[in-house]
Amino acid sequence: MPDLEYDVVVVGGGPAGSVTAKHAVKNGARTLMIEKRQEIGSPVRCGEGIARAWLEELGIKPSKKWISNEVEGARIISPKGFVVTLTEKMAGNECGYVIERDNFDKALAEEAAGAGADVMVKTSAVDVIRKDGRIAGVKARHMGDRFDIRAKVVIGADGFESQVGRWAGIDTTLKPSDVNVCFEYTLRHIDIDPKYNDFYVGSCAPGGYIWVFTKGPDSANVGIGVQLSKIKSGERGAAKMYLDRFIRGKKELAKGVAIREVAGAVSCCQPIECTIADGIMLVGDAARQIDPLTGGGVANSCRAGKVAGEVAAQAVKADDFSKKFFQAYEKGWRAKFEEQMYRNWMAKEKLVTLSDETFDKACEVLAEAKLDKVNTLEILRLIQRKYPELVKEFEDLIT
Ligand code: FAD
């Protein structure tokens, strides 16, 4: 392999990488996206639930190629079985479509390629290149061959296990309480209501939840996220153990046949302090942009990707690859969803402390109230009427 030279090199061909590459090239930057796996989007590591609204914002047209099912909303189910039904609008980042993630990722990569980006699969970044005190490309490997890809801008879109950020000296370390380990089956031949995505809360999934995201009339992704700090050391495979126990206890799921298993992890931290350095920007899971409450990261990855791509192209035009110039990216993605991330992180910090009894009481009240709008204050007031002790610490806020 000869060495290569581009304006922008994007490391990682997931949603963050493809959307960044598309917007960089559309705005005039010569762009290469490299992906270490042999096929974009495969194997899938995702519950495959996404909201609808943000797709329009990014000009991504819904397609039968990657939509598996459309849901009307979400149901939150407490340990004793109280069910809070939420409309799609209230349900957050993971409700609207249940998708085929492999096809979705491929469609995004095809859009990037269609706009003029070069794409190389089976190509890993193994280090960054430094020149004149900044990041100026990556060292890469393709089928045993090593070569340099020199670039004015490097985009680290290499997912949860990101190394690009670390190589560049950007601190993306996570506390165990800000990591959820996940395990998921795709089950066929089960009894479900395909109109809803279900979220089971409480001790069935310590510090997280169990999801049933419906892919069709008799199939769903049934998965779990468990907070890393709540798993006893040495408890290997804890997430799978909790999920298997849950499925065994539900006859409508227990009769299912697993056709896919997925293991992975998500960050559920508050927004990190910095996602840029001279010559480099981090996007998506690499930048810890996942919604800390739901663990959904596809939407935020794509929304941040658009900003990163545009800023990368502007940097090329301005011939300025400094951290200072890339502040436009920091400001851009933070304006879109930093506040919501922070609020959801606070909510998550509270939710992980609740007992099953508290979840039951809160869900009982909210189930009776038949919510059509989510308003934190209204929710607290409703709970206060029946169980004032549960919301004692918010008294000042409510009165
Ligand atoms: P990724 O999709 O992880 O893409 C990163 C890419 O970089 C990968 O293709 C990887 O192979 C490549 N790469 C890594 N290192 C290198 C390297 N050195 N060189 C070249 N390429 C490299 N989000 C939702 O919105 N809805 C859900 O239902 C949902 N469910 C989830 C369930 C599970 C079990 C898990 C683990 C996550 C889930 N998420 C969900 C989160 C979602 O999958 C991520 O937020 C999303 O994939 C982030 O996109 P990304 O492009 O940043 O990273």
Task: Summarize this structure briefly.
The chain has 399 residues and is an alpha/beta fold. Strand 9 and strand 10 form a beta hairpin.
Model description:
Helices cover 32% and strands 29% of the residues. The chain has 399 residues and is α/β, with parallel strands linked by helices. The chain has a domain at 4-59 and 101-174 and 271-347: FAD/NAD(P)-binding domain (3-Layer(bba) Sandwich), CATH 3.50.50.60. The strands form 3 sheets. Strands 1, 2, 8, 9, 10, 11, 17 and 18 form an 8-stranded mixed β-sheet that branches. A 7-stranded mixed β-sheet has the order 6-5-13-14-15-12-16. A 3-stranded antiparallel β-sheet has the order 3-7-4. A hairpin with a 5-residue loop joins strand 5 and strand 6 (83-87). Helix 1 (15-26) runs parallel beside helix 7. The longest helix has 25 residues, at 327-351. The radius of gyration is 22 Å and the shape is globular. The chain binds flavin-adenine dinucleotide. The site of flavin-adenine dinucleotide (FAD) has 43 residues, from helix 1, strand 3, strand 9, strand 12 and strand 16.
